[in-house]
Write a structure and sequence with these properties.
With about 400 residues, the protein is mainly beta. Helix content is about 0%, strand content about 45%. Strands 20, 21, 22, 23 and 24 form a five-stranded antiparallel sheet that branches. A four-stranded antiparallel sheet has the order 1-27-26-25, with no helix packed on it. It is globular. It comes from Rhizorhabdus dicambivorans.
């Protein structure tokens, strides 16, 4: 059981109306919601919260006739690569791959054999659904299907994933991961009200799953956490406190569009715990009395997916490359109690992936806590009220 006063699932696959999906009526195949998870979170001007939920829509029968199928968006006509289409000016197609070329052990994706490097396709296509919540995050007020964000360009043909939302001044900034054979890029959307979003640009061109823009400027600059991916990492010297592998880097920008890597490293995995053998960003850093509060995930290797837990660090307010406090005990772990009512829909376990945070004091609810939004088991949205004293 959770030790927090409020910890519950707030949105799950059965809460999604498939008839209002961007894919509805476009495929000659039945789909279902594999997951409604990894919600970006922000406070709206009316005091409510907005959860930008990743909806992974999958084929009910991906394997048939000796082939495994994937969903792909394609622009109408023959536009140049990277062209951003008008809303609705594309179509969804099914691609079929010979089953003997595919490794389908992971329910989220399949690997294609025969190339000189790793090539994969997804078992679902993701789009983003704005779900408006009550100020405390515990009640669904409205689901904004008319404002859903779906692929509109060839660099998003396999979907738009894992929104992270930051408010900086009077502007809302949302980073997302856009997936395609062209690139695995970070894309930026902007809003003047936190509800109506407009595509801005590709802001990182390399594989980067977790770009989080700080909720405030540092020295007049935008700052962000990034997490570049790769297949090769150089070793730290024997006895180092750090473990080689994915780490949370930093970047700065004058305008939130053009980013330069920061020379000093950010948050690195510690060598003395296997629970953080792989790490990545979680929530956009927010400013507290101690410095920038950053929630991030650590992964302990286990079977195919691993065990995902949430951890926290405090970064120096003037130099975020300086970590001034870190807690090695997990802040959040996956909860079998929470997912028991939807046990029949589980396809992975041991995963909590925290993606959003809001100040509970601003919502008129019980003061003294943060409202933390997470994806639970790559299946549903979890809301946890965490007392601020935890980070004191």
């Amino acid at each position: 059981m959770s030790s927090y006063p409020v910890d519950r699932l707030i949105f799950a696959p059965d809460d999604v109306d498939l008839a209002r999906s961007p894919l509805a009526g476009h495929l000659d195949a039945e789909t279902y919601i594999l997951g409604a998870f990894n919600p970006g979170l922000t406070r709206l001007p009316n005091g409510n919260l907005l959860a930008m939920v990743r909806i992974a829509e999958a084929l009910r029968e991906p394997i048939r006739d000796g082939r495994v199928h994937a969903i792909r968006w394609e622009a109408e006509g023959n536009p140049p690569a990277g062209h951003v289409a008008a809303r609705g000016s594309g179509q969804y197609r099914l691609d079929a791959w010979p089953l003997d070329l595919a490794d389908t052990a992971d329910p989220r994706k399949f690997l294609l054999r025969g190339g000189g490097w790793r090539i994969m396709a997804l078992t679902s296509l993701s789009w983003l659904l704005p779900v408006e919540l009550s100020p405390d995050g515990l009640r669904i007020e409205e689901v904004h299907y008319d404002r859903a964000i779906a692929p509109t360009a060839s660099f998003q043909c396999y979907g738009v994933e894992d929104a992270r939302i930051s408010r900086v001044g009077d502007q809302w900034l949302m980073t997302t991961c856009s997936v395609s054979p062209e690139r695995h890029s970070t894309t930026l959307y902007t809003s003047s009200d936190g509800l109506d979003w407009r595509f801005a640009d590709i802001v990182l061109d390399h594989q980067n799953k977790d770009m989080l823009i700080f909720e405030g400027l540092v020295g007049g600059q935008y700052w962000a956490q990034t997490r570049p991916l790769g297949d090769l990492y150089f070793a730290y010297p024997p006895g180092s406190e750090w473990r080689a592998g994915p780490s949370i880097n930093l970047a700065t920008s004058p305008d939130a569009r053009h980013w330069k890597p920061w020379p000093a490293p950010g948050i690195r995995p510690h060598a003395n715990t296997v629970a953080t053998a792989r790490i990545g960003g979680g929530t956009p850093p927010i400013l507290t009395d101690r410095g920038w509060l950053s929630l991030w995930h650590g992964v302990e290797p286990k079977e195919i997916v691993g065990i995902y837990r949430t951890y926290w660090s405090i970064l120096d307010r003037d130099d975020p490359s300086r970590t001034i406090a870190t807690e090695h005990r997990p802040l959040l772990e996956a909860s079998a109690d929470l997912t028991r009512p939807i046990e029949h829909q589980l396809y992975v376990r041991d995963v909590v992936f925290t993606t959003g945070i809001a100040d509970g004091d601003e919502g008129g609810s019980a003061p003294g806590h943060y409202i933390v939004a997470s994806g639970e088991a790559d299946l549903a949205c979890r809301i946890t009220h965490i007392p601020k004293q935890v980070f004191a």
